Fold this protein.
Amino acid sequence: MSSILSFIGFTLLVAIIAWWATRGTNEKSAKGYFLGGRSLGAITIAGSLLLTNLSAEQIVGLNGQAFTEGVLVMAWETLAAIAMILTALILLPKYMKSGITTIPQFIENRFDKQTKAILSILFLFAYGVVLLPTILYSGSLAFSSMFDLPNLFGISQNATIWICVWSIGIIGSIYAIFGGLKAVAVSDLINAIGLLIGGFLIPYFGLKLIGDGSIGDGLDILWDTNPEKFNLKGEVDSSIPFGTIFTGMILAQMYYWGTNQSILQRVFGAKSLAEGQKGVILAALVKFLIPIIVVLPGVIAWHVFKGDLANPDLAYPELVRKVLPPSLLGFFAAVLFGAVLSSFNSLLNSSATLFGFDLYKFFNKNAAEEQTVKAGKRFGLGLAIISLFIAPFIASAPDGLFAYIQESLGSLSVPILAVIVVGIYTKKVPALGAKLVLTVGVVMYLISQFVISPIMVDSALTEAAANGITDSKALSIIKAEAYPHFLHIMGILFVINVAFMLLMGKLKPKTTVMAEVVTEEIDTTPWKYGLLAGAIITAMVLSTYFIF
């Protein structure tokens, strides 16, 4: 009972603080609703960025991978810090000086309205059709398994998923649709603080358990008895082969942190460029420490359960149940609920913004601000309802669909990043080049991953069987070497896309160059310590590879 009361208490506290902090914001204006009145400070931005990125299913999934593969999966987290530094120092000044609300607006300024519309549709497809339902489903699944909700409430797993999906969806929709960006950001900040505190408690109690009350002894025992789990250099058949961190890994990170509307919208709401940069760099510092929450518990679980779990994804839920005192369970449930909520409401708010600014105003050029906000809210509400009905049925989809969807979304990152990079650093590349990359580039990736790759892998495994190879490790290596890893493919296609656009710039150069727009709404003076702070965090990230 105390756990349920602490869960409800913390969730209500977050809602009350979010309402109090946003009561003076004019939610009827586009700037107030979509950008929080351009009033967000560095700490609020950092907290919102971290919680938008970090959700319950990510904590469970990465710890599950760490249970199997060890700390090498931390590359997704630590290398993200470098991408965030590059975004803060290189991309943000370009974005924020132009005073944009959405990334497609930036593309319109550089290319044309049709290119902007294509990009907006790609973002909305990714958010609405795929990401919102899967975040609802996977977050609800992680939440229900971690706290054993079917047994707690005496209902079936399917009924539990429906309850969790609708609880997250309804509360998230209230924040995102009726509260606007500032309500989302403020609630994110409080939940982020809670998640960091709660997240650090799991390895704290886990190491104390291993070390019989001593954290230092626990860490020594963990290191000495499981040396293979602390190797950062992924083998060719691992989920992150070492070479991929130099090719597609950094591109995937730059796409996510440097061009993703649901991430950057928090920064566009900053009161100044310097505050935006400080927020992103502070989030990068915390991101460097996040593996303690999303990777280390998986290795601890490997030791505690002696590698014997039916499913690696149970590593984190089982460890939480084993080491966390019952008095803290309700608080931890509340912050995890908030983490799933954040990922959902952030995407919903960004979808409403993209629709309102980039599609509604595309077809209704003279629409007033209040009309645009209303249209965005209606679209967001409709999208939320659709995702609520789709999400529970993901459970009955074919095995591997979730992973299939995640790999499919990689098709968007390469062309979008290529178009934005070329748009920033060239003046003569025409809109036609961007349009072709945003359409043909997506198709090229899909053909590579879902047509050519299976054929090559099947052929290699057939040949291995004919040669009598049956060893599982040997077959794993043969499969991995049959076709380049999808992160390598991303690197190859990025170079092809950029080269194609540069060639178009030579063959059919743009005749009229748009004058650079500079906003007067906010102070666009960069943070004077940005470069120094960025260099220190980058050095910290690189040092981890020397330590391990």
Q: What stands out?
A: The radius of gyration is 23 Å. The mean pLDDT is 85. The chain is about 75% helix and 0% strand. Residues 211 and 218 are 4 Å apart (CA to CA).
